[in-house]
Fold each of these.
Amino acid sequence: MDLLNSIDKERIPRHIAIIMDGNGRWAKERGEDRVYGHHEGVVSVREIVNTCGELGVGYLTLYAFSTENWNRPKEEVDALMELLVNTIRKEVEELKKNNVRLHVIGDFKSLPDVCQTELNEAIDITAENTGLNLILALSYSSKWEILEATKQIADKFKKGEIEEADITDELFHAHLSTAKYPDPELMIRTSGEHRISNYLLYQLAYAELYFTDVHWPDFRKQSLYEAILDYQRRERRFGKTSEQIQKNTAPHA
Ligand code: IPE
Ligand code: IPE
Ligand code: MG
């Protein structure tokens, strides 16, 4: 069965968020160093970015490095930062050509200077692109992001710029690093772990969660099609009853 043809092109998630997990285990299974897995993971990133572009996905957020990942052995952290710089450098022209616009969320200033420079350049080069928005979560922690938003809001309150009644979901959202993006409808985690690992806690409030045992370096086009098909088979009720949803989606006579 051709998976691509089974996908309803009218109901492609507007925003997909992915926890790219399992590079280390993938490499270990092959008797290789963990860093080899990260390199192969980049091949998956390229393919998934292209596939999202082809499908007309509006936003793709990739968890590339968490705040907690700073606690990994120094050699691995250094290798990951080097891989990030080299990948951005190598891929930026391709991103530009493919109409992909790059964004970064996370504690940008905690990244090594060379990463910041390379990323800023790539963000500028792709700034006019109007296709897929590729959002890299780097040195990202959702708890950190929520606390930062809370501090900014508290400061505005203290200065009398806002009142308590102004603190709505909308206002809170506007203070997150994802303020410019819609919330993800679909969150995919590869490699078998069933947890969120400090990722987009506020934004995933009503996302459909999809977990697969496939390690990230093996997660390619077909795996993404499977995830989207699984998403399209679900009924998104947002607290309502199934009957209410079906009445609203029934084809008009
Ligand atoms: C995901 O793969 C990549 C990063 C977190 C940077 P892992 O490196 O977490 O791989 P496993 O989970 O140890 O297999
Ligand atoms: C989450 O994966 C972070 C990224 C994919 C960048 P981890 O492998 O770091 O998460 P845990 O440690 O299994 O929760
Ligand atoms: Mg992992």
Amino acid sequence: MKKQQFAVIGLGRFGSSLALELMDLGYEVLGVDRNEEVVNQMSNYLTYTVTADATDEEMLRSLGIRNFDCGIVAIGDDIQPSILATILLKELGIKTVVAKAISVLHGRALEKLGVDRIVYPERDMGIRVAHQLITPNLLDYIELSKDYSIVEMTVPAGLHGKILGDLNSRARFGCSVVALHKPSGCIVAPTAMDQLNENDIMVIIGSNDNIEQFEAAVNEE
Ligand code: ATP
């Protein structure tokens, strides 16, 4: 199967780390930035790099942008080039367009252009860190909707050695442990007999209120 190809427009802190991670994951990445110095710094690490203005339609066309599976507009500070580059990627027919927004208004403008996914790295990281600070066991969380999330948390000391049946999370808190990461591997859909040990990570799904009650209760056990 052909590997997916990504075009990252703007190689600032967000764009460059995204591009490098995609390379690490084994995909092909074209990095475009108008700053030659930035492009030179990245040229050894990405599949292709080009110094160019992403608001130049002819240039994007000549790069064969439409053949890429996904284009990510990672220009943030200046909204105008971000919007223009997004319009061009959409018009040139790239299948999936992702764009970084720096404000709600910027995000709304991108939404109107039919962007497939809008990311707010600063806002999302702020929210993530706040959650991690108030819940010491929380490692990560994914917002499924406004009210529902999936969270990853370490097993608090009070639960070490207990089985999931003892925890009885569904009946007590209305949320479910859907996976257990153990040093030996991951158990998906664990049973009531699976044991919780010190270095395990629980993956829990539920409403935010229920997960909050779950976290508070298990940390006291
Ligand atoms: P980050 O937080 O990711 O560092 P930022 O939000 O500060 O980025 P910018 O500094 O505006 O965003 O842009 C990120 C990168 O995009 C920069 O390296 C910049 O040179 C590049 N860039 C900005 N406008 C264009 C453009 N029209 N064409 C190509 N690259 C661009």
